[in-house]
Every structure is written in C-alpha cells, then in structure tokens.
Design a protein that fits this description.
This protein is of the alpha/beta class. It has helices at residues 54-62, 91-107, 121-131, 162-168, 183-192, 199-202, 247-260, 278-302; strands spanning 34-39, 79-81, 111-116, 137-142, 173-176, 195-197, 219-225, 262-269. Strands 2-1-3-8-7-4-5-6 form an eight-stranded parallel sheet, with helices on both faces.
Length: 303
C-alpha cells in the first residue's frame, strides 16, 4: 500500500473535531508520531450501550485540554486525527477497515491511538500491526473482563472474545485489573500461559508498578478498556464492575510498562458517554493525552 499523504484522510468529518484541535493545527501524517483513529463501532455490546458515541465525545472534550499535560507537551511530537472508521457492514468488514488504516500508520513507523467503540476494535488494530510485519510484540491489557471467550452470543468477533483472537495468533498477553471472568477464560489463561495481576492483587494494596517477565516481548501494544478503572472514576461504560483501578494507579501502571518496553500503540475502549455528564468525556480525553505524554517522556529517556 502507498504511504504518501493521499493514503490518509486530509479532511475532518463533519462533527468530528481533531484531537486537541483548539490548541494545535492538524499536521501532515508524516509529521505526527501519534495517529488518532476514531472507531465508533458498537455491535456486540451485551449490557449497557453507548460506546459508539465514545470517540466523538472524547475528541470534542479534548478541545478543553491544554497542550501541557502536567509534565510535558505531547503535541510536540505531532498528533494527527484520522476520519472515523466506517463501521457499517459485517464485523469482518469493519475489522478489515481498521486493520488497513493501522497498516498504513505502522508502515510510517508511527503510533496508532485507537478510540472505541467496543473492545472488538482492538483486534482490528492488532491485525493491522501484524499485516504490516510488526513482530516481537506483546499486548498488555487493563480491563474488568478477561475477554478470552472463544465465541460469545454466536460471534468470534464479540467484545468478549477480542483477547482470545490475540492469543490465538501467538501474541503474548499480560492482563491487569481483571475481576470478572468465566471458567472458559480461566482455562484459556492456563492453556495459553496468559500472565496476569488481577484487581484483587493490585487494588487493595494500591500497587503502582509492575515488572514484566524477562521473556515478554520488547514491544508492547497497550489496550485500556475504560471499565478496567473503577466505576467511581469512570461510570461511563456499559459493563461497570466495582473494585477497579484508580486514576493515578492506572497512569502509573502504564508508565511502568512504558519504561520497560517500547510502546508501539495503545487504545482506549468502551467509553459510553452519559448525557449531561461531560466530566467523564473530559476525563477520557485527558487520559489519552496523559498516555501520550508518558510515551513521549519514556521515549526521550531511552534516547
């Protein structure tokens, strides 16, 4: 595939502002390290809905951010916002569209930052990295749920199956904050050697950092399902589970991973805006911005 400017979207979709657009101009794709990919996909949610509205709400709220994230200016590395992925059609067709755009981003050596949408979206991003020939990477997941079912409600592309698709393709997985899973998922963990520190191991003692196993890959894609955080922080999700991670704990855990491995991409999934409560949209936008800042600073430390 071609990786010149024409391979990317150059116009902003009506009603879809670019990330931090009140403060920065949209750079060219080649100038931006962070490529924000909005994916308003909501097809297999099995409890509360609304995740399809998440990406737009996050982008709108990002206009209230400052470029200074508290420690640095992530936008100095460039933030490019793509048009939202077309989510009409079969799950397979949506996954293909996500993977094709991620492929282009990966070939440029840039960092995809996907905004969901249901957690199925993550598989499209991972597939795009694989198609681009990205190797030797693992996935670190913050989530309330293991998402390791082989199929759910008749679909292998359900949000409840996304991490099973990951391990099926031989990608090492490390799970953080899980506190809701079934017998099938426990068995899958054992069968695939999925390493984990569940919420009961992290939250009561306020564990702020982890050490990845020595044999874990040198590159990491980090997926953050917003329900991995406690509902007292983010009630804006369709599947809230008590006992989750706190704000600073989540950031610290991400930073501990970023200091040990190269972050090649990350996402924020399952944000379901609550009408009239824009505080959670703003918090989600700030969370994305702070994760960018951590990536920026840890890259700088490693140079």
């Amino acid at each position: 595939m071609d990786t010149n400017d024409e391979a990317f979207d150059q116009q902003v979709a009506p009603g879809y502002p670019v990330f931090l657009g009140s403060e920065i101009q949209q750079p060219s794709p080649q100038q931006a390290l962070f490529h924000v990919i909005p994916v308003p996909y909501e097809a297999s949610v099995s409890y509360g809905g609304g995740t399809g509205e998440g990406p737009k709400a996050i982008l709108q709220a990002s206009w209230q951010l400052e470029t200074w994230d508290g420690q640095s200016h992530p936008s100095e590395l460039g933030i490019y916002t793509h048009l939202p992925i077309n989510t009409h059609g079969t799950p397979e067709s949506v996954i293909t569209r996500i993977s094709e755009l991620t492929y282009e981003v990966a070939l440029l050596g840039k960092i995809p930052v996907a905004l969901g949408g249901e957690h199925t979206v993550t598989w499209g991003v991972i597939k795009g990295l694989l198609d681009a020939g990205v190797t030797d990477f693992g996935v670190v997941q913050i989530d309330a749920h293991a998402d390791l079912r082989d199929s759910y409600e008749g679909s292998e592309l359900s949000h409840a199956c996304v991490m099973k698709r990951v391990v099926d393709h031989g990608i090492p997985l490390f799970q953080l904050g899980i506190r809701a899973f079934c017998d099938e998922e426990r068995e899958t963990r054992l069968a695939f050697g999925v390493q984990h520190l569940d919420a009961e191991q992290l939250v009561p003692g306020m564990v702020m950092s982890i050490e990845l196993p020595a044999n874990f890959p040198s590159k990491v894609f980090f997926t953050l399902d917003i329900d991995g955080m406690d509902p007292s922080v983010f009630p804006s999700t369709g599947t809230p589970v008590p006992g989750g991670l706190g704000w600073y704990q989540t950031l610290s855990l991400f930073e501990s991973v970023a200091k040990q491995r190269q972050i090649i991409g990350f996402d924020l999934m399952e944000h379901a805006p609550i009408p009239g409560f824009h505080a959670y949209d703003f918090a989600a936008a700030m969370l994305v911005h702070k994760l960018m800042g951590i990536v920026q600073r840890t890259r700088s430390e490693g140079e």
